[in-house]
Amino acid sequence: MYRVVFHNDDYTTRDFVVMVLMRYFHKSHAEASSIMLHVHTRGRGIAGIYPYDVAASKVAQVERLARQHEMPLRLTIEPEDGGREEDE
């Protein structure tokens, strides 16, 4: 299984991140807001854990949407057993 990780930047809006988390990762508004704040304060945060193909598809969809909205949002895919428990 693989983590989809959001990375903080100085330009992507908080509202855009929340919308993406709700639309593509099926988070409630409260969950999405919590993840967004975690990313904002800690620099990165986990959107979810998925099989590789699902994670890659979600990242591609979000990156496409971010480009359409001229947002530099960056996501990565990491193996679940890769450590970094502070992301959770």
Overall description:
The chain has one domain: Ribosomal Protein L30, Chain: A. It contains 3 helices and 3 strands; from the N terminus they run E-H-H-E-H-E. It starts with a strand and ends in a 9-residue tail after the last strand. It has 88 residues and is an alpha+beta fold.
List the helices and strands and how they pair.
Blueprint: E1 2-7, H1 14-25, H2 29-42, E2 44-50, H3 52-68, E3 74-79
Antiparallel strand pairs: 1-2, 1-3
Helix pairs in contact: 1-2
Give me some keywords for this one.
single chain; 88 residues; alpha+beta; Ribosomal Protein L30, Chain: A; 3 helices; 22% strand; globular
